Triosephosphate isomerase (SAR86 cluster bacterium), 250 residues
Amino acid sequence: MIIANWKCNGNKTMIKDWFISYLNKIKNNGIDVGTVGIAPPSIFFNEVFNQIKKNNLDILTCTQDIAGSSRKCTGAISSEMLQKIHAFSFCIVGHSERRTLYNEDNNIIQDKIFECLKSDINPILCVGETEEENKLGKTEEIIQDQLSILNNLDITDKTTIAYEPIWAIGTGKTPVPTKVNQIHKFIKDVVQSNSINQQKPKVLYGGSVTEKNAESFFRSEHVDGALIGGASLSGAIFAEIVNIKNEIKI
Ligand code: PGA
């Protein structure tokens, strides 16, 4: 499963070019990799959706955020609206940029997870530690707290976690793949033992993933894919990463 998180980037020309270069590079329509998704800024949902349809691509549209249960929320987009425009499959929830810039805490994020689950939109819950927490050896403690959002929830088999160490996002720094693998196993164990239905989630790695380092993550047993920011803004590079995942059959 590979998801492009375009964040606050894109315009109509970029989107047209993105799909041309993606099509030039992608092998087999990315068919074996499982889910491939793009989370564009909401204002470009239509452009992206039309390109996917026109080119007959196996790419899902995702959202970068969703409104919580309150509809008194200027600027937000609700689950009902998302369902009415297109069938949105996945929604990124609790990205560290939203935790920091919009003060989203566990309560707010949990409310959004509920909104996703009640609307058949599969949440991708982002978790991860700061550099300081990492240095203090607090990574697992922090992640366990962030995952407590899912405690006693009946999550779906498509509920996904993205492990995104904050210090790795957009910095070019990454944890070593063995460490990532260890944290992913930890996440799977915690969610499995705390959810009502003992569901083991898929866990994506996010944070400075590129076509150069993707293979090292994808070869790890517990890494089920990637959430990609900067490198996903190029259709060619994103296709290369999808091709790499396709070629590794684990
Ligand atoms: P990055 O962003 O790939 O640019 O580090 C990842 C993310 O924030 O989801």
Q: What stands out?
A: Residues 71 and 182 are 40 Å apart (CA to CA). The mean pLDDT is 93.
